[in-house]
Specification:
Elements lengths: L2 E12 L11 H14 L2 E10 L9 H11 L5 E4 L2 H4 L3 H14 L3 E4 L4 E2 L5 H4 L1 H28 L12 E4 L2 E7 L1 H15 L4 H10 L5 H9 L5 H8 L5 H8 L8 E3 L2 E5 L2 E6 L6 E3 L9 H15 L14 E3 L6 E6 L4 E6 H5 L13 H19 L2 H7 L1 H39 L4 H32 L5 H12 L5 H7 E6 L5 E5 L8
Helix pairs in contact: 4-6, 8-11, 12-16, 16-17
């Protein structure tokens, strides 16, 4: 005879972490719960199943539907296989069992744990401890998964679900990337435009204008196979945005390096993701075929600061992003005046805080200023330089950026080794003080020494690479020299390659800082 006092809802949950346990399958849980209800003459009103959802988060669709049914009085009893099916977060699970269910007069039964909130038994007393143990299990699983992923990342295996734009997964090895040639052509175009001195916004607008497919549209076709025609068309019409261009131009994946662990979850209970510090990224070099050569990539990195700060204007100014105030060191921008039909320079710091008199306007007629600077460069070329000496000095232009990158890596490794040596000294003192025993010290010192020696080897290799790079030659150097000496039609690409910055002082003095070495000026 059916017990009409209770309207039962059975709740079933299975997460990916539970797939190794056959007893936790959806089918086995359903069978157990139906059998229990039948043996006790309970009527099952509804069934709530969350397949593939973690127990540390209660934002599960069927769980939320169950709560709504409780609120409207559709069910007044819930049965689960055990408490871990309800949830693995001990705070959330405790709130449900100890507060929410009693307040709604809901009877809760966890069969395998012997918990029945309508009975006075010892199993109910230990329910909070079971919730804590379930939480600890979830934490342990999360830690193991994270450790396993990081281990694979350090081996250079690509473990992300979505491939970076320009690549696809190797059909013979899902953890290896191979070039997607159609997308790679777009990546090369983006770098080519950046080399010419264009901003993120200009590149994004240009790609949209010539109807280059966005990464989002590619991902939609590859991963969303159920996409309707209207959805696909919407994806096709997506526009390129500045952040996408920046992400591509600054991603080492395109020089053959796998860069992972850029983001992390706050903890195992919260799905919110935050960005890691760059020093915490896991970078493994030369794991796949490069789309962009290293010299070009690192060269672009030095050009980006000159380009990204340029405001997008209807008028093109050759020196945008290179002008600085010689007095306050802030940027100088160029503005067009409709009344006069001319363009003028203004100190940004003065314009923003003019009432505080922190600087002066530094106003100059831009057209006149540009002509003067071009003439100065011509005079420097004609008066102080000769082709042979420039050629020797300008070799740094093509490869200077790679050299800067390598020097930065050497500095970072040296800083790391300094910290490791300090830790080694501290471990030695801890051993003398008896804080750690001899066995612990031997193990710690061995690991630290191994890492120090490995970093030293990396430093030696980087120094050797840097020395070799400085001796490289390239036909493009010859082109730079010829164009630099003539400057008949100076381009943005040429200007940003030979000028680091231009400082303008209040007394109209102009200081031009070139990118090449000062040693060749006589």
């Amino acid at each position: 005879m059916i017990n009409s006092n209770f309207r039962v809802g059975i709740y079933i949950r299975l997460s990916r972490d539970d797939l190794t346990k056959e007893s936790d399958s959806i089918i086995s849980q359903r069978s157990l719960l139906h059998q229990y209800a039948e043996e006790n003459n309970y009527e099952i009103i509804d069934e709530y199943v969350d397949d593939g959802f973690t127990g540390t988060n209660f934002e599960r669709p069927s769980f939320k539907r169950m709560i709504k049914d409780i609120e409207i009085g559709k069910i007044n009893m819930i049965i689960t296989k055990d408490m871990s099916r309800l949830g693995r977060d001990y705070i959330g699970t405790g709130e449900l069992v100890e507060k929410y269910f009693p307040s709604k007069n809901i009877r809760y039964i966890a069969i395998n744990d012997g918990i029945d909130t309508f009975l006075d038994n010892t199993s109910n007393d230990v329910a909070p401890f079971k919730a804590i143990m379930n939480d600890m299990y979830a934490k342990d699983i999360s830690k193991k998964v994270k450790t396993s992923l990081h281990s694979r990342m350090k081996e250079g295996l690509y473990v992300s679900g979505r491939c970076p734009f320009g690549y696809r997964k190797d059909p013979n090895d899902k953890n290896h990337l191979i070039i997607n040639h159609e997308q790679a052509d777009t990546v090369r175009l983006i770098f080519d435009l950046a080399l010419k001195g264009h901003t993120y916004h200009f590149i994004a607008t240009y790609l949209t204008k010539i109807k280059i497919k966005t990464p989002a549209s590619y991902y939609n076709f590859i991963w969303n196979t159920k996409c309707s025609n209207s959805t696909c068309i919407s994806q096709e019409k997506q526009v390129w945005v500045d952040t996408t261009i920046k992400a591509i131009l600054t991603n080492e994946i395109y020089i053959g390096n796998t860069v992972q662990a850029k983001y992390k979850k706050i903890n195992y209970k919260i799905k919110k993701i935050v960005k890691n510090n760059p020093e915490d990224y896991i970078v493994v070099e030369n794991t796949h075929e490069a789309i962009i050569d290293k010299e070009t990539f690192y060269h672009v990195q030095t050009l980006l600061p000159k380009n990204v700060k340029r405001p997008e204007k209807k008028r093109f100014y050759l020196l945008d992003g290179l002008l600085y105030c010689g007095d306050c060191k802030h940027r100088i921008t160029v503005r067009y005046q409709n009344k006069t039909g001319r363009s003028y320079t203004t100190c940004d710091y003065y314009r923003t805080y003019s009432k505080y008199h922190v600087c002066t306007t530094h106003t100059n007629n831009y057209e006149v200023l540009e002509n003067e600077i071009i003439n100065v460069i011509k005079n420097v070329c004609d008066t102080y330089l000769d082709k042979d000496r420039i050629k020797g000095s300008l070799k740094g232009i093509e490869f200077k950026d790679n050299s800067s990158k390598i020097k930065g890596e050497i500095t970072n490794l040296e800083v790391i080794n300094k910290k490791l040596s300090e830790n080694l000294d501290k471990s030695y003192m801890d051993n003398l003080k008896g804080i750690i025993d001899d066995e612990q010290y031997a193990r710690i010192s061995k690991l630290l020494k191994q890492e120090i020696n490995a970093n030293k080897e990396k430093i030696d290799n980087l120094k050797a690479v840097n020395a070799n790079d400085s001796t490289k030659d390239n036909r493009q150097i010859e082109n730079y020299i010829n164009e630099f000496l003539s400057l008949e039609n100076p381009t943005r690409e040429l200007i940003i390659n030979i000028i680091e910055k231009i400082e303008i002082y209040d007394d109209k003095t102009i200081d031009i800082k070139f990118t090449f070495n000062k040693g060749f000026i006589s």
